[in-house]
């Protein structure tokens, strides 16, 4: 499986998955009082089922936790990742 680059597009409240210079997916969020709420995620169909969604979500959650924010999954990809990796639901101490 190829590695993707993940870009945080803060002005548009999203993380973008980039493969060989081409955007192939995104995770959209909004920041709220309770934490960073992930509302939508997708990988373009021709790149689904290659693990890119997992790489994207992991990078977005790593960045969220590093910022001291609690991740909240409202979209299925993030919600499923958090269910499988409950340690990501906790904010690490600063």
Written overview of the protein:
- The chain has a single domain, classed as Gcn5-related N-acetyltransferase (GNAT) (Aminopeptidase), CATH 3.40.630.30.
- The longest helix is centred in the middle third of the chain and has 15 residues, at 52-66.
- It has 94 residues and is an alpha+beta fold.
- It is globular, with a radius of gyration of 13 Å.
- A hairpin with a 2-residue loop joins strand 2 (14-19) and strand 3 (22-32).
- Helices cover 26% and strands 36% of the residues.
- A 5-stranded mixed sheet has the order 1-2-3-4-5, with helices on one face.
According to CATH, what is the topology?
Aminopeptidase
The first-level CATH class name: Alpha Beta
Multimer state: single chain
Q: Helix count?
A: 2
CATH level-4 homologous superfamily: Gcn5-related N-acetyltransferase (GNAT)
Shape: globular
Name the helicity range: 25-40%
Strand content: 35-45%
- Strand order, biggest sheet? 1-2-3-4-5
Measure the end-to-end span. Answer: 33 Å
Largest sheet, strands/sense/barrel: 5 strands, mixed
Q: Tell me the Rg in angstroms.
A: 13 Å
- Mean residue pLDDT: 94
Give the tally of β-strands: 5
Order of helices and strands: EEEEHEH
- Report the CATH architecture: 3-Layer(aba) Sandwich
The helix/strand class is: alpha+beta
Low-pLDDT regions: none
**How many domains comprise the coordinates?**
1
